[in-house]
Amino acid sequence: MMSKSYFGKIDPEYKARNIINELGLDMNKPIDPFFVAHELNIVVKKHKIGQGVLGACKAVGLNKLIAIDPDLNNEGREKFTLAHEIGHLVLKHRLRCCNKDDLNWQGNTLSEEQDANLFASELLMPRNAIVPILKRNEVTIELAEQLASERNVSVTATAIKLVNLSQDPTVLLYFENGKLKWSTYSKNSNFIKLSRNIDADFLNTTFGIKQCNSSDFFENVSEDSLCWIDSKFYSNYNFHMCIIRLDEEPEDIYY
């Protein structure tokens, strides 16, 4: 039986995989959402929509239209925005106008925006293409940057995908202007509680991979547990990304 989303529609990741199969796309190569939109008879226009709006979509009868901001500053963000809007249409969501926050991953709250994010992530980075890579590599910012370059997608979206699919207890933190904007977790680290006092200034001094005490970042871990922190500041876009991988298995981490 097909899994369902919060709104009772077909699971967004299943829908993305189904489209990849129906269009005969090679999941191991970069997938072009402009081609996907064309094959689905969706008209795409680059058009200024409104202040802060990155993408919008609507469907009237059989006519489907997507508009994306012509000022998006990199190809990866443009592709994810378009894939996100395609997701809204194929998942039969209502008229949408999406800003930057709509395309962010803020916790595990189920919503139409999260469904569209899941669809876009699976369309551009299919699970069956990423899992074999994770079996050979640990999740690092370097790996995220490498895959983002190979698949022409954003580093942030790639890091999210890697962390979400990781079998290790792993957390991704995303900071803007020194403040934690959002976080996402691997499946077996959902119950780790982030410390309320995470120091972004400390992260700014820890570029690269270093070993730290897990209790520096999490409230409900033993004081002697260790973690690996991989941190980088992207000055061009003014955000800071941090991947934290705990050394121990989940049952050995908690109090």
Low-confidence stretches: 1-8, 250-255
Q: If you compute it from the alpha carbons, what radius of gyration comes out, rounded to the nearest whole angstrom?
A: 19 Å
How confident overall, as mean pLDDT?
85
For the record, the CATH class of the largest domain is: Alpha Beta
Number of β-strand runs: 9
Protein name: IrrE N-terminal-like domain-containing protein
InterPro entries: IrrE_HExxH (IPR010359), Rad_response_metalloprotease (IPR052345)
Organism: Alkalithermobacter paradoxus
Domain IrrE N-terminal-like: 39-162
Write a brief caption for the model.
The chain is of the alpha+beta class.
Structural notes for this entry:
- It holds the Pfam family Peptidase_M78.
- This is IrrE N-terminal-like domain-containing protein.
- InterPro entries: IrrE_HExxH, Rad_response_metalloprotease.
- It comes from Alkalithermobacter paradoxus.
- The chain has 255 residues and is of the alpha+beta class.
- It folds into two domains: 113 residues, Arc Repressor Mutant, subunit A (Orthogonal Bundle), CATH 1.10.10.2910; 120 residues, Beta-Lactamase.
- It is 34% helix and 24% strand.
- It has nine helices and nine strands.
- Strands 6-5-9-8-7 form a five-stranded antiparallel sheet, with helices on one face. Strands 1-3-2-4 form a four-stranded mixed sheet.
- Helix 3 crosses helix 4.
- The N and C termini lie far apart (38 Å).
- The N terminus and C terminus are likely disordered.
